[in-house]
Amino acid sequence: MALKDTVLTSARPFRVMVIGGSYGGLSTALNLWDLTQARLPRFNYAYDGPAPTERIPIQTTIVDERDGYYHLIGSPKSLICEKLATASWTRFKDIPALASPHFKIVRGRVTNIDCAAKVAHVLDTATGSILAESYDFLVVASGVRRTYPVVPQSSCRTDFLQEASKHSSQVRKASDVAIIGGGAVGVEMAAELKMLVPDQRVTLIHSRDRLLSSEPLPDEVAQQVLATLLEDGVEVILSQRVISTTRIDDAAEDHAWRLTLSDGRELVTGHVLNAISRCVPTSEYLPGRALDDHGYVKVQPSLQFAGDIPNPEHHYAIGDIASWPGIKRCGGAMHMGHYCALNIHQQMLALCRGGNPKYKTLVPSPPVIGLALGRKAVSYTPAEGVRHGEDLSKTLFGDDMANQSCRDYLKLSEACQQVP
Ligand SMILES: Cc1cc2nc3c(=O)[nH]c(=O)nc-3n(C[C@H](O)[C@H](O)[C@H](O)COP(=O)(O)OP(=O)(O)OC[C@H]3O[C@@H](n4cnc5c(N)ncnc54)[C@H](O)[C@@H]3O)c2cc1C
């Protein structure tokens, strides 16, 4: 018998529960599936070692409030572009990579985790009842909450398409639009809108004297972003806070809102988009001792919980919800998912055949950013410095805000391969 045909035995399949079926959660679930099928993980771009020689029985449950995988980073464009909206949300049941009885998808909201008993309580969307799901390993990948219109608020594909269509028609019919907040989301919203509706007057208002002021990035990044926006016809007002936003009764649609700025200036506009959204971690279902002062999950470099809870070694947190330095990014969430899968696999091996798990540990990453600004992009890494332009946009985002490249990276369209 070839080594690959060897199946390690445990009393029953390992039960892995993943909370959140987005970049981080799917990365863990799919990389772990590869490893337990005695294959190199799909993210094996930097060498992870030889492929495992034995298969391990596993049952993965993915719980999500949404009915599918949503390409969140495309939101500044997908909310105003129906074609991209349609491609941005794929119901879990339509994802070939998850089409296996080894993956169970539960649509619902996790309400409580009992770390001692290793049981997750889930409010099942379909029945309204609370399910108690036992697990051996828990992966918390439920990210942060953000408000509309930074992200859509729908939890199923049908509602999302309606939400995007309504948003798009409201925004497109205005002859001018004011966007409040020049952070990463605001600058992307402004640039995408100007590209999609070139005749529209788009004004971006930011309270500080430089864009992206809350990101730990060099000034030259903000300067390049500002130059790109101005080049493409976005008007930018810096160092002004919006003091009030008032609806003008009986005014024409083009003059529906009056904004008062901190210097007393008034701006009349047809539509206002608020791009300021505080990120609130979705960790309310976890014990307080697992969390830092801001509600993010304290993790070790292995991504296992660092807080004082029972069984910390069987609890992992990844992606935006993890208390980890650096700019929160989808690439970071997927990278953490990869490491989390490697570490859980190590633990499974150790439980089956003895020995100690060899953990991969995450190194704090330097600030890195890539921004899609209409037909152009601006990026920054400490090694490459600031880059910008149309070619960069094609490389980083394609023409669909990197929707296809994220799907390809996760191999969502490839059928779930199982050794017979
Ligand atoms: C507008 C915008 C643009 C962005 N652009 C970029 C970019 O260009 N590049 C980049 O690298 N990053 C970008 N980001 C950041 C990136 O989107 C996040 O870093 C990434 O989504 C984090 O992935 P995650 O898997 O940790 O969480 P998320 O993608 O937030 O997914 C969390 C999942 O958990 C589910 N969930 C939440 N609570 C519960 C619960 N209690 N029970 C069950 N399920 C739950 C949610 O429904 C969701 O599916 C952008 C973010 C925004 C908002």
TrEMBL record:
Source taxon at top rank: Eukaryota
Example of a GO MF term: electron-transferring-flavoprotein dehydrogenase activity
Pfam families: Pyr_redox_2 (PF07992)
Organism lineage string: Eukaryota, Fungi, Dikarya, Ascomycota, Pezizomycotina
A Gene Ontology term for the protein's cellular component: cytoplasm
InterPro entries: FAD/NAD-bd_sf, FAD/NAD-binding_dom
Name of the protein: FAD/NAD(P)-binding domain-containing protein
Start and end residues of each FAD/NAD(P)-binding domain: 14-337
